[in-house]
Amino acid sequence: MSKNVLVLPGDGIGPEIVEQAVRVLDLVNTQFNLGISHESALVGGSAYDETGSPLPEATLTKAKAADAILLGAVGGPKWDGLDMAVRPEKGLLGLRSNLELFANLRPAILYPQLADASSLKPEIVAGLDILIVRELTGGIYFGQPRGIRTLDNGERQGFNTYVYSESEIRRIARSAFEAARQRGKRVCSIDKSNVLEVTVLWKEIMEEVAKEYPDVELTHMLVDNAAMQLVRAPKQFDVMVTGNMFGDILSDAAAMLTGSIGMLPSASLNAEGRGMYEPCHGSAPDIAGQGIANPLATILSVAMMLRYSLDAKEAADAIEAAVSRVLDQGLRTADIASQDCQTVSTQAMGDAVLAAL
Amino acid sequence: MSKNVLVLPGDGIGPEIVEQAVRVLDLVNTQFNLGISHESALVGGSAYDETGSPLPEATLTKAKAADAILLGAVGGPKWDGLDMAVRPEKGLLGLRSNLELFANLRPAILYPQLADASSLKPEIVAGLDILIVRELTGGIYFGQPRGIRTLDNGERQGFNTYVYSESEIRRIARSAFEAARQRGKRVCSIDKSNVLEVTVLWKEIMEEVAKEYPDVELTHMLVDNAAMQLVRAPKQFDVMVTGNMFGDILSDAAAMLTGSIGMLPSASLNAEGRGMYEPCHGSAPDIAGQGIANPLATILSVAMMLRYSLDAKEAADAIEAAVSRVLDQGLRTADIASQDCQTVSTQAMGDAVLAAL
Ligand SMILES: CC(C)[C@H](C(=O)O)[C@@H](O)C(=O)O
Ligand SMILES: CC(C)[C@H](C(=O)O)[C@@H](O)C(=O)O
């Protein structure tokens, strides 16, 4: 049964890191006889430059037909001044919402080989393994009405709407509880229920869904406290579940705790388990084209893709083992460079993973 | 000229820590002949229990008449189940908005004596001195419409509105630039302008106001990146300015970086410089009544109050010097306890500051 992967290199360092990840995909495809084919398409700023749209119709059509999507990264200062409706990130947001990729899984794992890379003290982060489950197709990212209007007194006012319905909360809650069942069996739901009504409903539905999972413990935490606790004692968490905006902020903070955001993959899944896979980090325009970006988060995103969407667990395991071996060998890209290790290029890191496979 | 301070002990550890802070206020009042009088009033959950409202009319009237307000902390699980409109935090939000305390100044400072208390590595946080300027009377905290409605399909939907007008952004921008002028002359404005229209306007007005302050540098950062950078390299910041919700999250994260959130005061000022002063930490209901809470953030809030609202700079300096001396003596409350230091009670910490004055 042949499987089709859509590759979206995107902007900034996207093309460089995706190139290495595709080499890895091609190799395991042959080694494990997976019958995976792939094609590429444009998204983000590069799509805008070429077609006038950050999410061209052709890309969306291919994305809907694909069994899985591998994305590099999108956006950059070059497209910053554009009107909202055409800014490149709309490409990403458009993909997420059109494909209903509502469940964003963002692990924050401290690799033992990279323990020194964290800015936190070793005793605070050693063994860190959190999974952030972020709702990805709702909340204030997509809420209507939105825009900038002129008030009666002549001044302008910007407005966005933070909105969640019961069914949106229920399905992301189930994603979190299901994930927790495979891990430490604890879910911490993050809200701001002392101020925002939408998160009062959020908290209530979390409680309701928790009854379906008596083996999983549910706790609640206010978002400001969660930001503090991530810094103070991050190992207290197993699975954190939250909305789109809080999830954006907290997952980046959590990833950075590990000191190796260049190492962290992510999955964005729809109700059928089809998904888009991408590194947690952004398009890093400041280092684009220099060949120094870390391709490992994208390579590990390929592993997640094989495991969650392409039913190829063995190939996924092989990639993860290869990455671990490369770290054991002391190879590091600049972002995770360390004194006793060898700093290598994007390409050399890709070579090393291929060699380890 | 006599000055009137309204003292609002609030809930949880509020009364305990405020008690020590008032002793300090009384002493400097005598020592420096400041002519300050003070009275107390109810706010928060304790006000709700007694009067049915978290912000009784009598309290609000006194607050409006006062030259400055000293607040402990409000809220706690006891009042969690209450309807939004009467939940205790409404007392706090009501105070902020009725008094138009739009500029919330939250310093995140690493005390050299407490360098070990941070969960970050010493080289990352040594010398940390950030000021977060948070807009406090607008944004999604106060935006209308808000609530929980039932959709046509019968399910409920929670909604809040994130809104800022030009004039609201302009005045908080000026607060940030003014503050930066007294410090490192750098403002970093935090937004999510790649997704939220309201923050596109925010960014634009920041640029406009920056023209009035050619001696201050303005940069912009996306909120998710800001959360990462606070963990990765917090010393890159001087003044950070942001809206109510992002400010809530980032200021708590920043405060926690110092490992001594029990040490950090805050000021909430209106256009005339009148203000409310309170510790950055919350009501900590889990340790309330045990006599172990750290009163220093509240005592330092008294110092901020003397400096910003009561024109008593010398008394403020004296309090800050006394706190520093007490830390030098090795006295620590439980939250900042360390091996070679003596762990003392709330009351004993208050005694020590009085003795050092
Ligand atoms: C690029 C941006 C729109 C996006 C987001 O905010 O979701 C990114 O920060 C992310 O977290 O994937
Ligand atoms: C208690 C709560 C309403 C408040 C806020 O969110 O503003 C608190 O977290 C704070 O930061 O002062």
From TrEMBL, chains A, B:
Its cofactor is Mg(2+); Mn(2+). InterPro entries: IsoCit/isopropylmalate_DH_CS, IsoPropMal-DH-like_dom, Isopropylmalate_DH. Residues 4-353 form the Isopropylmalate dehydrogenase-like domain. It holds the Pfam family Iso_dh. The record marks Y141, K192 as: Important for catalysis. The keyword Magnesium applies. Substrate binds at R96, R106, R134, D224. Its main location: cytoplasm. It is found in: Cytoplasm. GO terms for molecular function: 3-isopropylmalate dehydrogenase activity; magnesium ion binding; NAD binding. Homodimer. Catalyzes the oxidation of 3-carboxy-2-hydroxy-4-methylpentanoate (3-isopropylmalate) to 3-carboxy-4-methyl-2-oxopentanoate. The product decarboxylates to 4-methyl-2 oxopentanoate. This is 3-isopropylmalate dehydrogenase.
